[in-house]
Amino acid sequence: MPKHSWKIGDIVIDNQVVIAPMAGISNPAFRVICKQFGAGLIYTEMVSDKALYYDNEKTIGMTAVEENEHPLALQLFGHDIETMVYAAKLMDEKTNCDIIDINMGCPVTKIVKSNAGSALMKDPEHAIAMVKAVVENVKKPVTVKMRIGWDLEHINCVELAKGLEAVGVAAIAVHGRTKKQMYEGHADWSYIKMVKDAVSIPVIGNGDIHCGEDAKRMLEETGCDAVMVGRGVLGDPWLIKDIVAYLECGEHLEAVSLQEKFAMARLHAKRLMDLKGEHIGIREMRGHAAWYVKGLPKSHRLKDALTKIASYQDLEDILSAYEKEYAAYPQKSDF
Predict the structure, then answer these.
(1) Cα–Cα distance between 175 and 222 in angstroms, integer?
(2) How far apart are CA 207 and CA 175, in angstroms?
(3) Does 75 carry a binding-site annotation?
(4) CA–CA gap between residue 229 and residue 34 (Å, rounded)
(5) Residue 12: helix, strand or coil by DSSP?
């Protein structure tokens, strides 16, 4: 196995950079780009157990896995044991995923109100029983992504991790924030270390990874097996390649040129259109396009224009005009 590789169950993962599941983001168009830039493991956006149970066509479509996405974890959210087992078996038998992940970390009100996501951390006995039933009914490795607890007064990630390991979970990802923190404040990596020290299965550390130095520090401070990167890669898939390189050789890659950024934005848009058609794909691209141009000169004006695109030609016209205006800039620059 490669020097920085590790395993979840019998699934070999080539490096220590994992891309987090992001709702509305982690579709095949985005995931393939992450894989292209060297991610060791990628997650799908979370899918509903109830939607799969009731044969929702759109949700079933979200479980499709492309050939060049492996290894991939397909993430499931829910609360009821019967429907979670049904959905997990469907993923196990009918999809091409490598790993089945259970979401215990999503803090969004809609998910929490259904007693799923991070709400499961408020009832660890039920959470462990639910996961046990899933593990017993599927052949693929089962993992869990969770937070450190509901709030600072109810931090139970260590006890929950021990219980999950006992029922056969193959790996755990820990986001170093509570549900109450949402995505604010700082992630407390000390709890990731506590989880890693308490279990023998792989632990993935998540929270506040913005560069190679952050990733290396998390690995060293917590002893975790891999780092999970989320929002930092939006519009910047080069971050994946840079972190991989930094962990392997302690060096950063060259800065990315304006032309490279825009070429990837165009490719991302085309992949979204292939996946969802131009009408929907381009509307979803509005947010991605704004992330791709973050930090560029006069980016506020550029972002404003990109949030209104209604066709691929609109995107092309805006990017081409900007490229022409800034043609005098160096090909390589620290945008």
Answers:
(1) 12
(2) 5
(3) yes
(4) 11
(5) strand
Contacts (Cβ under 8 Å, ≥6 apart) of 328:
none
For 6-249, the fitting CATH number among 3.40.190.10, 3.40.1380.10, 3.20.20.70, 3.30.470.10 is 3.20.20.70
In the chain, CATH 3.20.20.70 sits at 6-249
pLDDT at 2: 65
- Check the annotation: does 22 bind a ligand: yes
Digit-coded pLDDT (tens) for 160-201: 999 999 999 999 999 999 999 998 989 999 999 999 999 999
Mean pLDDT in the chain? 94
Q: pTM for the full model?
A: 0.93
Based on DSSP, count helices (H) and strands (E) in the chain, helices before strands: 13, 11
Report the alpha-carbon angle 84-85-86, nearest 5.
Answer: 90
Give the tens place of pLDDT for each residue, 7-24: 999 999 999 999 999 999
On whether 1 is known to bind a ligand per the annotation, the reply is: no
CATH number of the structural domain 258-328: 1.10.1200
286 annotated ligand binder: no
Residue 328's pLDDT is what?
53
Catalytic option among 34, 97, 106, 224: 106
Contacts of 297 (CB under 8 A, 6+ apart): 326, 329, 335
Check whether 270 is labelled as a binding-site residue. Answer: no
Sequence ranges of the chain with CATH classification 1.10.1200: 258-328
* Residue 16 annotated in ligand binding: no
Alpha helices by DSSP H, the chain: 28-36, 49-53, 57-61, 81-94, 109-113, 124-137, 157-166, 189-198, 212-222, 238-249, 258-292, 299-306, 312-325
34 is catalytic: no
**Is 231 marked as binding a ligand?**
yes
Residues 6 or more apart from 315 whose CB is under 8 A from it?
Answer: 265, 266, 269, 282, 285, 289, 306, 309
Query: Residue 4's pLDDT band (boundaries 50, 70, 90)?
Result: confident
Buried b (16+ CB within 10 A) or exposed e, 70-103: ebbbbbbbbbbbebbbbbbbbbbeebebbbbbbb
